[in-house]
């Protein structure tokens, strides 16, 4: 695996892709993003644009690493916090990891790569963890 790579760090609470909301416009149904998902994707898109600056879009086959760092629950004892910081305790609650992936790919479409269909595999590290600094780290690599 060689080629260009980029890491985008989106600070703040991670937001997964929410269920689409429905409305009717002139008698026909229309789906739209929930406001929280839409706002997070716009923010992630701005962060990605800043990272990409004047670089060309990534080409060809790509690999993705997504690291979601969720806020440490206030109810955790000191012992549980230590276990969570070391990665022994990981979030098993909703939202699902695939919904974070969907939101990240939507945000990077047209900014880092032409289309998310270019993502052909995932690479490690990949998953959800607890942290005192919530964020999402997205790494995209060109496969050559």
Outline the fold blueprint.
Layout: E1 5-11, E2 21-25, E3 28-32, H1 35-52, E4 62-71, H2 78-85, H3 97-108, E5 119-122, E6 127-131, E7 135-142
Helix pairs in contact: 1-3
Summarize the structure.
With 144 residues, the protein is an alpha/beta fold.
List its salient traits.
144 residues; alpha/beta; 60s Ribosomal Protein L30, Chain: A; 5-stranded mixed beta sheet; 7 strands; 31% strand
Mean pLDDT over all positions: 95
Number of helices: 3
Helix residue percentage: 25-40%
Largest sheet: 5 strands, mixed
Shape: globular
**Count of DSSP strands:** 7
Account of the protein in words:
By secondary structure, the protein is an alpha/beta fold. 26% of the residues lie in helices and 31% in strands. It is built from 3 helices and 7 strands, in the order βββαβααβββ. Strands 1, 4, 5, 6 and 7 form a 5-stranded mixed beta sheet that branches. A hairpin with a 2-residue loop joins strand 2 (21-25) and strand 3 (28-32). Helix 1 packs across helix 3 (97-108). The longest helix is centred in the first third of the chain and has 18 residues, at 35-52. The protein starts with a strand and ends with a strand.
